[in-house]
Design goal:
This protein is α/β, with parallel strands linked by helices. It is built from 17 helices and 20 strands. The protein folds into three domains: 310 residues, Glycosidases (TIM Barrel, Alpha-Beta Barrel); 59 residues, Alpha-Beta Complex (Oligo-1,6-glucosidase, domain 2), CATH 3.90.400.10; 79 residues, Immunoglobulin-like (Sandwich). A hairpin with a 2-residue loop joins strand 12 and strand 13. The longest helix is centred in the middle third of the chain and has 17 residues. The chain is globular and about 75 Å long. The protein binds 1-O-alpha-D-glucopyranosyl-D-fructose. The site of 1-O-alpha-D-glucopyranosyl-D-fructose (TEU) has 13 residues, from loops.
């Protein structure tokens, strides 16, 4: 079984098509743009490409609102382009994983159009329709069928004037939630997944897949102090039929097909204990889950717009818990960045003086853990957050809805609020990929849909491609290390010195075969000569580092990471 699970020793690269490479000058990245950049991915050495959604979509949430699962949005290209991408990736020994967004569709999907056409339509029950709360008239404040708050601000319920009923949308009102209780919905989804597998794709990244089972009673959630809406998460975050649905999907879609597919369940709010169940191979659910604990550690009391400094001890504690929790059963995914997160080097590293060293350190302390690492486009060159200075720079619906909600509540966003949004906005991940020093970083010959980061003039692929000291060269070495050294995949993980507030240190081990990773998470030198753990590493070799080699007892320099190997 183990050796068939090729994804355990693989590295995944996430492409956000809108911002990767634009081949036709319309300012939006596209499939032909990706095809034109495969040399970069191949020379990096990644095994799998995960594409964020390219399906037909009104683009309310940049494609996470799908109106046709079997068509490509014209801004991205055609089905023919996808076939060519699959063929070219396979020819280069890489695989393709598609984004699967089936918690919700677009409100412009024909399924929803039919469902909304009349309460007696056979597809009515494909979505969550409910009458107003008893005692309230449709549209009256408080008439919403439950008090749940949307991920994108405001109520999760939208009134449909025609029928006087509400439909549920956990995300934007243009993203109505599918009703997975209805077996026809599940069948339609499984059928569509099979259609993509038959086209040659190698798996799926499943968007918010832990949210597909809702408590059909839709109970009100607790309203936190100072909040208008309640927390519905307890009723949809790990719903009563979640394991049944995911197992059924696995069985129907993959059970009848030869080969091993990669399935990544994106699961906000998932716990370690739940993740063990989802990823236990014996249960046949998903290969791995994307969890959010470590990227929530700098969120303040009222969430992501209220940031607080990362406590390194907390980061270590969280990562250790996930490593230990999935050590004997299940598997971890490892990531710092995706299209929803600010750039890691700005957030957890130092995007000023120690930019390159800290970008490399973050790469090493993540990739050398046990699990499958994910690189988000631009991370391999250390792309940073963008200096957003005005509202007009922002594009993301989550940020815009949040600011609009403040205004609606009579709060005029001040500079401090704008600064907080600029630091946390998903747009930080979505500025164009920086290929070279040309206009817009070589992303487009037209006007990009979102401004490129002004630092593209110095920070770009072409400036790093042939520089052996670059962040890019370091990422190539990290990936090669995983491929060449089985210990990186199979070794056990032990966190060292959990109470040290600057040293990130761990051991990977298989008998006498061992690797020690030492990372200094800060800009000051860190003395390590008196650390007892170093005593039995005297005969080790430096396998990788971001500074010229030094004796193993020498102080760690600013953001230095040292990887020692002993056989
Ligand atoms: O994200 C799910 C999710 O957890 C986010 O809504 C998260 O709460 C937010 O982005 C944090 O800022 C997935 C996709 O990755 C995201 O791009 C989509 O907007 C969302 O689902 C809805 O499909």
């Amino acid at each position: 079984m183990e050796n068939q699970e090729w994804w355990r020793s693989a590295v995944v690269y996430q492409v956000y098509p809108r911002s990767f490479a634009d081949s036709d000058g319309d300012g939006i990245g596209d499939l032909r743009g990706i095809i034109g950049r495969l040399d970069h991915l191949q020379s990096l050495g990644v095994d799998v490409v995960w594409l964020s959604p390219i399906y037909a979509s009104p683009q309310d949430d940049n494609g996470y609102d799908i109106s046709d699962y079997r068509a490509i949005d014209p801004v991205f290209g055609t089905l023919h382009d996808v076939d060519e991408l699959i063929a070219q990736l396979h020819a280069r020994g890489m695989r393709l994983v598609m984004d699967l967004v089936v918690n919700h569709t677009s409100d412009e999907h024909p399924w929803f159009r039919e469902s909304a056409s009349s309460p007696s339509n056979p597809k009515r029950d494909w979505y969550w329709w409910r009458p107003p709360r008893p005692g309230f008239a449709a549209g009256e404040p408080g008439a919403e069928p439950s008090n749940w708050e949307s991920f994108f601000s405001g109520s999760t319920w939208q009134l449909d004037e025609a029928s006087g009923e509400y439909y549920l949308h956990l995300f934007s009102r243009k993203q109505p939630d599918l009703n997975w209780e209805n077996p026809e919905v599940r069948e339609a989804v499984y059928d569509m997944m099979g259609w993509w597998l038959d086209r040659g794709v190698d798996g799926f990244r499943m968007d918010v897949i832990n949210l597909i089972s809702k408590d059909p009673a839709l109970p009100d959630g607790v309203v936190a102090p100072g909040k208008t809406w309640g927390d519905g998460f307890p009723y949809y975050g790990y719903g009563p039929r979640i394991h049944e649905f995911i197992h059924e999907m696995n069985d129907v879609v993959f059970g009848s097909r030869p080969g091993t597919f990669l399935t990544v369940g994106e699961m906000p709010g998932v716990t370690v204990e739940q993740a063990r169940r989802f990823t236990d191979p014996a249960r046949r659910e998903v290969s791995m889950v994307f969890q959010f604990e470590h990227v929530g550690l700098d969120h303040g009391e009222s969430g992501k717009w209220d940031a607080r400094p990362l406590q390194i001890i907390e980061l270590k504690r969280s990562m250790q818990r996930w490593q230990d929790g999935l050590a004997d059963v299940g598997w971890n995914s490892l990531y710092w960045n995706n299209h929803d997160q600010p750039r890691a080097v700005s957030r957890f590293g130092d995007d000023g003086q120690h930019w390159a060293a800290s970008a490399k350190l973050l790469g090493a302390i993540l990739h050398l853990q046990r699990g499958t690492p994910f690189i988000y486009q631009g991370e391999e060159i250390g792309m940073t957050n963008s200096p957003f200075t005005s509202l007009a720079d922002l594009r993301d619906i989550e940020s815009l809805n949040y600011l609009a909600g403040l205004v609606a509540a009579g709060i005029e966003p001040d500079d401090a609020m704008l600064t907080a949004v600029a630091a946390a906005t998903r747009d930080n991940a979505r500025t164009p990929m920086q290929w070279d020093a040309d206009a817009h970083g070589g992303f487009t010959t037209g006007t990009p849909w979102i401004s490129s980061n002004p630092n593209h003039a110095e920070l770009n692929v072409s400036a790093q491609a042939d520089d052996p000291d670059s962040v890019l060269a370091f990422y190539r070495r990290l990936i090669a290390l995983r491929h060449d050294d089985p210990l990186v995949t199979t070794g056990s993980f032990t966190m060292l010195l959990p109470e040290h507030d600057r040293l990130f240190a761990f051991v990977r081990e298989d008998g006498a075969d061992r690797m020690l990773v030492l990372g200094n998470m800060g800009g000051d030198e860190l003395a390590i000569a008196d650390l007892a753990v170093l005593d039995d590493w005297n005969d080790s070799q430096l396998a990788l580092g971001n500074y010229p080699a030094a004796s193993i007892h020498a102080p760690l320099r600013a953001w230095e990471v040292r990887v020692l190997r002993q056989r």
